[in-house]
Design a protein that fits this description.
Strand content: 5-15%
Order of helices and strands: HHHHEEHHH
Oligomer: single chain
Number of strands: 2
Number of helices: 7
CATH topology: Arc Repressor Mutant, subunit A
Helix content: 55-70%
Largest sheet: 2 strands, antiparallel
Strand order of the largest sheet: 1-2
Structural class: mainly alpha
Radius of gyration: 19 Å
Number of domains: 1
């Protein structure tokens, strides 16, 4: 194989990977956003909800840290979510400069509804893969993340993803 043919093969593999990866990412993001929108939750807000479903009563700074975002970004998102009736701000019990973010009844009720939709979406996305292929896919995606310096998955990973890693695969 010549240097030119090896370079062409590498370039074709790079283009195929980029097309497949970004196409899958876009499809998953769009389908997930549509599932959340059906419940009045807009882009990015689902990550705040997921943090609060895991531990209600966090400060905006704690949410920002878990999501690897700037605190002002979380503050803006939570203001909109409060207006939509998904959460409420309460003064911090010991530091009056801070607030704690708490889910409303509506915000709490969405966990089950949205969780079921995300599970159906995940099953639809992975329907052609068997249990071993699903495990390998998760492992490969985790490896790609680490290769790019993002480190291992942290607690900010969506609960359904962490749960899927713990429970035995069926299929």
């Amino acid at each position: 194989m010549t240097i030119e043919s090896r370079a062409a093969t590498r370039q074709a593999a790079t283009e195929a990977f980029q097309r497949a990866f970004w196409g899958a990412k876009k499809a998953i993001a769009e389908a997930t956003a549509a599932a959340f929108r059906r419940h009045g939750v807009w882009a990015g807000q689902q990550f705040v909800l997921r943090c609060l479903w895991e531990e209600d009563g966090l400060t905006p700074g704690e949410i920002a840290h878990r999501l690897e975002l700037a605190t002002p970004t979380v503050t803006k998102a939570t203001s909109r979510m409060e207006s939509a009736g998904l959460l409420i701000r309460r003064p911090h019990p010991s530091d009056k400069r801070l607030v704690r973010i708490h889910l409303t009844r509506r915000g709490k009720s969405l966990q089950h509804e949205i969780g079921e939709e995300v599970e159906r979406l995940t099953e639809r996305a992975l329907q052609t893969l068997g249990p071993t292929e699903r495990r390998r896919l998760v492992d490969w995606l985790s490896e790609i993340r680490q290769n790019l310096g993002a480190g291992p998955d942290r607690s900010s990973a969506p609960p359904l993803v962490r749960e899927a890693k713990r429970r035995p695969r069926q299929g």
